[in-house]
Amino acid sequence: MRYISTRGQAPALNFEDVLLAGLATDGGLYVPENLPRFTQEEIASWAGLPYHELAFRVMRPFVTGSIPDADFKKILEETYGVFAHSAVAPLRQLNGNEWVLELFHGPTLAFKDFALQLLGRLLDYVLEKRGERVVIVGATSGDTGSAAIEGCKHCENVDIFILHPHNRVSEVQRRQMTTLFGENIHNIAIEGNFDDCQEMVKNSFADQSFLKGTRLVAVNSINWARIMAQIVYYFHAALQLGGPARSVSFSVPTGNFGDIFAGYLARNMGLPINQLIVATNRNDILHRFMSGNQYVKQTLHATLSPSMDIMVSSNFERLLFDLHGRNGAAIAGLMDNFKQGGGFSVEEERWTEARKLFDSLAVDDAQTCETIAEVYEQTGEVLDPHTAIGVKAARECRRSLDIPMVILGTAHPVKFPDAVEKAGVGKALELPAHLSDLFERDERCTVLPNDLKAVQAFVSQHGNRGKPL
Q: For domain 86-106+224-422, which CATH number applies: 3.40.50.1100, 2.140.10.10, 3.40.140.10, 3.40.50.300?
């Protein structure tokens, strides 16, 4: 399997090199040169497989030539063996044909565990084989950080620096990051918003001279391995609901477009998906594109669903690449226009093509709380605010009541007590046993100004397990 850049100027790489590269040298994102496609018979034969075995069948084509089957199977078994639920990603029925796919049974109670538990093990495997050491600099709007640290904390050849917006993540999200200690773990609170953090990461990839020869690796969803891992649970959900003999629709809370792009890929790989709903909060750049062909930056607002407080959706470039016939030069021009002018529209026929599959809705905080309260009253289930946005979008945008609708349950509600309290839900939420003492644990975090050079100087000074790089 070879991977190419969405901007057409970077060299094609194999899986191992893409894992370590993250962003392409031309500023683009890596995608498979050719997407594997499965027959309906193949997909049907996977019904009833344990999650790690299904993951092997779905992801195997992406790592062929880089990781032997036996090694990959072992990595996957270890990855999903740490999840608290035997089904790994169980489905919970809300009503007759509406389901929540619970993606929060991993160590950090968020869907990011599906990819980042795998990414940590893949990095360990590849770096040990190569005898290399790397630095991870990642940005988080809430859940990626703790999942990345949890997935990579035992990696012998990795130093990890996670940037989060100061005072703009929930207390549980922050503590899940700042209470994990290790010589190779560094939490940085940036006096800015998530987009500022994400921009610093991208700029650091563009010029890595501050690392003095050490390689920088991405854990954000620009890293192809994260997208690859998320494809699996679309197959997992569909198989439980009668797929591939019947179509399934999905509503996906998304800010960076990575999770829903995985669903788009699953469909292109042969899974019958009728509809993909982009569910966003007040920071609605994706909704404005899907509903009106306007991809334009606006002011970023803090909301009750902080993991989606994102104004520039990195992975959207991967969809644009396909919509433009995989023309790298066209994407490079489009993204340059976006950087210079802060927005763009695409040709009508390309936008119309996207609308055949995608619908969207922006949900504000008041509607989020209303949905949490409504679902609790109807079912006794407590939703986190991101999942509630997915439910609201599913109910507003659904094309057919006859087709099962799956809402991606992206986080455990205990991570967002403020939203649950504002919704008026009286049910007490308890942290799982492995996090029961979270609020008593010591924290370690460094607050830095919204300044790229200050961040890079910190990384250079504290890398290599506390020794300057």
A: 3.40.50.1100
